[in-house]
Specification:
The complex is a heterotrimer of chains A (288), B (326) and C (250).
Chain A lengths: L4 H29 L6 H19 L3 H22 L9 H23 L15 E4 L2 E4 H23 L1 H11 L1 H6 L4 H27 L5 H16 L4 H21 L4 H15 L10
Antiparallel strand pairs in A: 1-2
Helix pairs in contact in A: 1-5, 1-6, 1-8, 1-9, 1-10, 2-3, 2-4, 2-8, 2-9, 3-8, 5-6, 6-8, 9-10, 10-11
Chain B lengths: L6 E4 L5 H16 L4 H23 L8 H16 L5 H23 L4 H21 L1 H4 L24 H23 L1 H11 L3 H4 L4 H27 L9 H14 L5 H20 L1 H18 L3 H14 E4 L1
Antiparallel strand pairs in B: 1-2
Helix pairs in contact in B: 1-7, 2-7, 2-10, 2-11, 2-12, 3-4, 3-5, 3-10, 4-10, 7-8, 7-10, 8-10, 11-12, 12-13
Chain C lengths: L2 E12 L2 E12 L3 E5 L6 H9 L6 E6 L2 E2 L5 H6 L2 E3 L12 H12 L14 H13 L15 H14 L4 E5 L7 H12 L6 E5 L3 H7 L2 E6 L2 E6 L1 H6 L1 H8 L6
Parallel strand pairs in C: 3-8, 3-9, 6-7, 7-8
Antiparallel strand pairs in C: 1-2, 1-4, 4-5, 9-10
Helix pairs in contact in C: 3-4, 3-5, 4-5
Classes of the chains: A mainly alpha (288), B mainly alpha (326), C alpha/beta (250).
Amino acid sequence: MFASLPGVLFDGVAYGSLLFLMSIGLSVTMGLMRFINLAHGAFAMLGGYVCVVGMARLGVPFLLMLPAAFLVAAVAGAVLERTLYRRLYRRSPLDQVLFSLGLTLMSVAGATYVWGSGQQPVHLPGFLLGQVRVLGVDVGVYRLFLVALVGAITAGLVLLVRRTRFGARIRASVDDAQASAGLGINVTQVFSVTFALGSGLAGLGGALAIDVLGLDPTFPLKYLVYFLLVVVVGGAGSIAGTLAASLLLGVFDVSGKYYVPAVGAFVIYGLMVVLLLLFPGGLRRGAR
Amino acid sequence: MSAAPAVALPDARWRPAEVVFWLVAVAAIFLFPGHLVLGSQVLITGLFALSLDLILGYAGIVSLGHAAMFGAGAYTAGLLAKHGWGEPLSGLLAAAAVGAIIAWGTSFIAVRGGDLTRLMVTLGIGLLLYEAANQAAWVTGGVDGLSDMAVRDLLGVFPFDLAGRTAYVYSLAVLFAVFLVCRRIVRSPFGLSLRGIRDGARRMPAIGSPVRRRLIAVYTVAGAIAGVAGALLAQTTQFVGLEVLGFSRSADLLIMLVLGGAGWLYGGLVGAALFMIAQSQLSSINPVYWQFWLGLLLVVMVFAARGGVVGAAAAARERFLRGASR
Amino acid sequence: MSAVLRTEGLSRSWGALQAVRQVSFALQAGARHALIGPNGAGKTTLVNLLTGTVPPQAGEVFLDGERITDLPQHLRVKRGMTRTFQITTLFPGLTVLESVVLAICERKGLGASWRRPVARHAAEIDEARRIVRDLQLEPEVDVATRRLPYGKQRLLEIALALATRPRVLLLDEPAAGIPVGESAEVFGVLAALPREVTILFIEHDMNLVFRFAERITVLVEGSILVEGTPQEIAADRRVREVYLGEGGHG
């Protein structure tokens, strides 16, 4: 049983990477605008459907559809942020929950209407299929690709946040939006770009996830709890925290389902409750 | 003493509109004899919404997992009935106890932390219980649900008939009884302190109020009521499906309460009636349309209502709560 | 005279900013004590530390000789120490009367009582009306807090504090926002409180401070600069330099 441990762990890491990609936008949105966006999964779903449509209708290869998924989701995010989300930043959490819930319902209904309620197939290119032997362990090529891609994107994000002026503006705004505005930082613009970027990443994640998690109109609701979980446990607004939480949850979920399938999904929720008890402020803030 | 002018404070007097409301509910037995099954469902969901109103409309706790207590109550009553104990009223009490215990147990996490943590915790507990019920299919019947329940006659005299008459009267009686208790709570100093917590959680400790203890208390009571509602569902439909613990039950409930207006007790009842009647008409035609328009309604409500949904209801409910009194 | 409220080496910082540094301070029973200092001196933070709104990072707080450093805020209120807030912190949806009645019910341990409606708690209502009358809020007794003008909200802040029957009353800029003529009246109400009530107040209006304070502590950048009678403080050169400005504009 333990011979497959590295394989299971790697699977968990791959799953966690996907979670990270889809959740990082939500984390920053919550840390930055303090906005509870339950509709975040809808952007991931959008990216997924864009990818499917592009491949099936337009014959575009998978890898080329990935940036397209990112772009479409990012644009959708930018438009919605500017028109709707922006007006609700100061509203009560209940209003935010109701709004994002409504948006989610609309997106789920819309997706069902356009594409039907079934699972969408995805045809991965041949070179991403199969398994390869790495360090004595058989790992899926696609999962390897996922980890590598997300790793690169994470590195890019860290560079963006730590080395660029825009990243500094984001960090300042997360720390204290009011003070940042007082310093002359165009906080509105920071919000917009960050929201678009986060939505785009979610869209990319959604496209990448079709093979791993599947894609159907209930995607936003089905995985909502995972995204929220990652953000709350990792600490909103923290890249490191979100990454740690994603990987942790990914590994635990996959291991749980593999080693104790009888209680599979249980593990995740139980873990969440335990983590929330121990770290009410999220992993980033440490134990209280 | 008698020269001092009357002031407005929460009192126990019945407004005429309230009396009309309950009379209509009773009259429905005779006015809509063919729709009593839907009627019981509306009453039961109204009771469920009442319990959410206590924690959301009064204490300000946003919960996305209230179905946890509801479903637990449903399974409790269902399992009791299935395994030989079919007496309905004691089933209700057992369900209330189970709902209270779950609520009490989870309240310690739920009252801590900010809004987001609370949302997560309530959501998580709901999902946890859903998975547990799913996995423990040998007890709960899993996806197929719990059936073959032998619910005995109400008070030993009234059997549960197919037309749903007994079920309706039963649900109405329970709803009314619980409503009376809630009404009393809400107009008492305890209810005032809940409103204080909702409106000014920072000020409450500064006047000596043990906020956590109050929240745990109201959360537990709400859990018991939700459990009772679940038990009613199990007993009147003689079936318990997994969806009693599902996210959409919690989400739909939140929508219903907000539609009717949180914080004045009747909001949940009115919202449940509107929602379920509309759903029964529209959802059967085309469930996708229903979902879409519901979502759109929510979005519009948030933008259109002045001060948001929360603010617009506030003025109405305060007027409702207070009467002129000495 | 004994110190009813005392701190030892109380410290609190926010990141790199030391808000309160090693403050050792004693409040005598029955005092009318003012806490003054420039903006950002740490006065509100000190009050937050005293009342338990914010936990200290070092130091101790003693009430009546007993260590209360770890005691949660609501229990300190039960022990007799109440505060008002600089930024009005009230209950927007409750009326003036409801707010005061709530505070009185909490004090009497009725906060959890659910059997009788609020309207039938005659004793509490009468007491509330007396407090409301004392603070000139009677015309607004049924107005929801969110609709009160700012000056009236400040009065309600004080009414809530008085409703808890404090033995130690900490007031954070009680007169801020109240028209000048009325603020003296408010202080009049406070001054009329019996000597059993010890008062510490933060104020920026020097006229009020010198009129009502019997003892003044000057806080600058988180530390106590000097403490003494109003005459001593007015004459102190350091205070004039740091706070009143050179040449004494205050």
